[in-house]
Amino acid sequence: MRRLCLIATLAVLGGATGCAHQNTPANWQNPDVPKDSWNNDIGDCRRYAKREVQREAGIPAMAPLEDNLGGGLGQYQQSMNRFELSRIQSRAFDACMRRLGYTPIVGK
Q: What pLDDT, on a 0 to 100 scale, did the predictor assign at position 28?
């Protein structure tokens, strides 16, 4: 199971899910924070979300991911794990942005 999560995490952290592309400065706003600080906050929340996925998958933050990979997993299970980890990452990012006072912009 751990190998399964590690493989899925690689795909998620590699950008295969597209989560990082959806969470841009155009999608979040905070009128109490200068716009030139928004990118820093978004970067902080992306890093936080990445750490949450690593924690959920049981990956030590500084461990090289390649060392733990194995093969033989079914495509369906890989897709399901990738999907679940992408949901965790997205929820963690959204929660972080809301904690910083940002609100999502709907319809952009």
A: 92
| Cα gap 50→12, rounded to integer Å | 9
Question: What is the full DSSP assignment across 59-74?
Answer: --TTS-GGGG------
Instruction: Indicate whether this model's pTM tops 0.70.
Output: no
CA 25 to chain centre: 16
How is the chain split into domains, by residue range? 2-104
Q: What SS3 class is residue 28?
A: strand
Please, what is the Cα angle at 4 between 46 and 2, to 5 degrees? 90
Nearest Cα to Cα of residue 3 among 88, 99, 74, 87: 74
Q: Which residues contact 6 (CB under 8 A, 6 or more apart)?
A: 57, 58, 59, 65, 68, 69
Neighbours of 47 (CB within 10 A): 12
